[in-house]
Amino acid sequence: MPQQDVLHRFLFEEVGVRGLWVSLASSWQTAKQYQHCPDAVQLQLGQALSAVVLLSATIKFNGSMILQAQGDGPLKTLVAQATHDRKIRGLIRSSDAVTPGSLQEMFGEGRLVLTVDSENAHPYQGIVPLQGGNLAEALEAYFAQSEQLNTRLWLFANEIHAAGLLLQELPTQSNDTADWERIELLASTVTEQEMLELDCEELLYRLFNEEKVRLFDAEPIEFDCACSRQKIESALRMIGREELESVLLERGHIEVNCEFCNKHYRFDRIDVEQLLLWDKNIPADSHTKH
């Protein structure tokens, strides 16, 4: 049984390569329970959640990273989010007629978008075509285009666990191509069963027992949806009075459901008047950061 809901960093001490390993269990179970779609589609969400944890751990930031895949095929939208403190959530939307296949077979023509929303910097966004046999290959193409660092990913998911492995060259070292190729070749022998059933230390020993690898302490991961009534109110204010009045006239109230956690928010006419009055009560020269 692998360690559950943790991220491990590791470093090849004599080679300019670093690694990350993630295993999701209860966080994966919680995330997918709110997403009603075919099993083959849910497994794509498990891979995406593993991927976004790995990718968010390669940079230093305070905020969130969002991985989004969209296409015109049976699988329409896939979103996975991880924060700097290892909170995850995700959603997926598809038709009922999705069969396992390559990314293009499931998504059709599409794109992969990575967004970093940091508290201390302007948002960063990278976009690449959604191509390759699987999500790992598409992300490797993203790194080849944007980072110019050799990067490999392995992503797997079943009904119980989701797991991922990332290897990347260190940017500050003059790396030996032969070293990278050796590490990459060893890692490429990993199997889905090993990824989903072994803990990190055992997996690293099995793959790299002749290398000097330093394993760092585990970082816990949990499902956590960032939705709140306050955030929904802010979104409703942006819609404006005219549109809100139209909905109230038709239905008598406004209902909003969070697609990540299925939490239900309801606003009656008095609620809407209060949130619209909030804007009028802010001094004209004040600045509020959202």
Write the layout of secondary structure elements.
Blueprint (H helix, E strand, L loop, with lengths): L5 E7 L4 E8 L1 H8 L5 H18 L6 E9 L3 E9 L3 E8 L8 H5 L2 E9 L5 E6 L5 H12 L4 E7 L4 E8 L7 H11 L4 H6 L2 H9 L4 E3 L3 E2 L1 E2 L5 H11 L1 H11 L2 E4 L6 E4 L1 H12 L10
Parallel strand pairs: 5-12
Antiparallel strand pairs: 1-2, 1-10, 1-11, 2-9, 3-4, 3-6, 4-5, 6-7, 8-9, 13-14
Uncertain regions spanning at least 5 consecutive residues = 281-290
Which architecture of the largest domain per CATH?
3-Layer(bab) Sandwich
Q: Based on helices, strands and strand pairing, what is the structural class?
A: alpha+beta
What is the strand content?
A: 25-35%
Tell me the CATH superfamily of the largest domain. Answer: Hsp33 domain
Write down the overall geometry: elongated
CATH domain class name of the largest domain: Alpha Beta
Most strands sheet: 6 strands, antiparallel
- The gyration radius over C-alpha positions equals 21 Å
Instruction: Give, in order, the helices and strands.
Output: EEHHEEEHEEHEEHHHEEEHHEEH
